[in-house]
Amino acid sequence: MKAPAFDYVRPASLDEAQALLAGSDGAKLLAGGQSLGPMLNLRLARPALLVDISRLDVLTEIGEAPEAWRIGAGVTHARLEDLGDRLAGAAMVGTVARGIAYRSVRTRGTIGGSIAHADPAADWPLALVALGASIEIRTHDDTRVQPAERFVRAAFTTDLAADEIVNAVVVPKRSAQARTGYFKFCRKAGEYPLVSAAVVLDRPSGFARIVMGALPSGPTALPDLAETVLTGGAAAATETIVETAVAAAVPGLDPVALRMRASAVRRAILQAYA
Amino acid sequence: MTHVTLTVNGETIAADLAPRTSLADLLRERLRLTGTHLGCEHGICGACTVLIDDAPARACIVLAVSCDGQAVRTIEGFDDDPVMAELRSAFSREHALQCGFCTPGMLIAGRDLALRLPDAAPETVRHELSGNLCRCTGYAGIVRAVTSVAAGEAAARARSAPPAAPPAFPAVAAPAVGASAAGATPVPSSAVSASTAVAPDLADAPAPPAGWTRFEETFSIARPPATVWAALCDFPMVASCVPGAELIEHGADHVRGRLVVAVGPIKAAFAGSAKIVRDETRRIGRVQGAGSDKASGSRSRAEATFRVEPESRDGSRVVLVVDYVLQGTLAQVSRSGVAQEIGRRLVATFAANLDAALAGDTAPARTPAALDAKALLWASLKAWLGRLLGRSRG
């Protein structure tokens, strides 16, 4: 249970980090290390070089624009948890952060690291897609912005090129009437969920997303159900309607898995209207 | 070796360390601070919880070199801490420990909780302590002890230190938010690749043993069944089409080889062997194999049945049923059907390579690259496109 040997560098800037990534075969970024750390110890990951960006101040800023929050990629879950509802218009961010693993993991794990790792069962890939967030990516000579749903391609697979770094996550603010729900079913508190679902409904802007998590191909949206619920409210989300929508989006689920997924979606909807 | 300087319980420590050294190993092996216990060594049990710059963290999954310049506090460093003193008494009073293995982690996590959450209810305490495992006490005494200290005087005094004024958020220019954020652009729906098998009547694929996982795939090759069958029975040809596969040795009905699978940060190199039984007339093959990845201590056994059928004019359809079981560390991280998804993508890439090889236009590389991020990206793009087209047709 000891990590394999690797080289380690803590660069002083993102430029330096990118040069290291580009110049080394088998280089891997280390952010909070709360997913990579266990994988190293289990020897499932065997990078030649770890480039530690966990303490680059430039990645830990939180900025506010009129329409959105810009959360630096290196901001920890614990910091977002402690902000609670101070992220006006995006309070679900605090709720989601509070439910990630355990405090001693949240103090180090980062939002950018989580989305770049793209564990299918992790919270941020699901929540950020539901929130309509975008990922700000530092390319080798520029910055590009990718909607979260196009950033996460599948399990552990993202849109990032080898020398690209997630700079920040941009979460749009929703109106005061926005309704949000987030539900996950975990065998044990803090463990990865078996099923999860997130709901963001904002009538004034017409934004409606209901998204399922913990699927091997990444976050999966239920756009028709979201429209139905946006106009019809929680009453429109009957067990039958939700189950039909889930079954159509994820064919081949056995009855138990279907029921679990549909229940998670329905509970997230009911939470949004609670 | 990397040189680090950090403080541990107030004392400055300088050391040259191999980068892979965990903070826990530095504390225990070099500094002999054995109060930091190592249980699971992969961030599950919480026994190794310490404070790094006053925030609780798991010392087993923190690299010691990444703590350069930081202040670490272990269970040995709380002698004069009033909240910890109260917590120690409460643990004793409430029988909150038996063997004591989890206690250092429990105490540090419990103290952090008491400082953060005044008057936490027992349910909150249970939830907050869920990252620290205890195998003796049933938690009841631990929860009582921590609950009492969270409501106690020492914690209240420690909290009454003037809170830092909440920082104002710097204003930033309105960030480009990307097209989707403005409205409800639908996300590609559906999770399963378009090629999921249409309930093949594989009476020839026996029911999988209990605990095994099955996935079924169907793919089409634009060549006659006899050609496809011959190709599938040709080990070098098959190996050249499986991404990450390497043929070591083979006979008429057995094969030995290696398969490298890379997904995100995970990389596993399975070495193994398989036997094959063929029904030439019905064009059905059954493969039984087993392999292991020594580095991660993962093992897999699999049985696959494949059948080649005629399809349209001069084309073939291959129906594949794979039953497998994955054990060891890889199984631990293979949640949410990730292993099946990797299997599907392997099959999809294999089918594309075989199609190309038989068409003769692109000879597959003799040593094909491992199923890497790019191949995965391509496979998922293809699956996504398939779903998109399927949807627009439907």
Automatic annotation (TrEMBL), chain A:
Keywords assigned by UniProt, alphabetized: FAD, Flavoprotein, Oxidoreductase
The keyword Transmembrane belongs to this UniProt entry's keyword annotation: no
Cited InterPro entries: CO_DH_flav_C_dom_sf, Diverse_Substr_Oxidored, FAD-bd_PCMH, FAD-bd_PCMH-like_sf, FAD-bd_PCMH_sub1, FAD-bd_PCMH_sub2, Mopterin_DH_FAD-bd
Superkingdom of the source species: Bacteria
Domain FAD-binding PCMH-type residues, every copy: 1-176
Keyword Transferase: no
Descriptive protein name: FAD binding domain-containing protein
Organism: Rhodoplanes tepidamans (Rhodoplanes cryptolactis)
From TrEMBL, chain B:
InterPro entries per the UniProt record, alphabetical: 2Fe-2S-bd (IPR002888), 2Fe-2S-bd_dom_sf (IPR036884), 2Fe-2S_ferredoxin-like_sf (IPR036010), 2Fe-2S_ferredoxin-type (IPR001041), 2Fe2S_fd_BS (IPR006058), Beta-grasp_dom_sf (IPR012675), CO_DH_gsu (IPR010419), Diverse_Oxidoreductases (IPR051452)
Residue span(s) of domain 2Fe-2S ferredoxin-type: 2-78
UniProt keyword terms in alphabetical order: 2Fe-2S, Iron, Iron-sulfur, Metal-binding, Oxidoreductase
Residue spans crossing the bilayer: none
Protein name (record): 2Fe-2S iron-sulfur cluster-binding protein
Organism encoding this protein: Rhodoplanes tepidamans
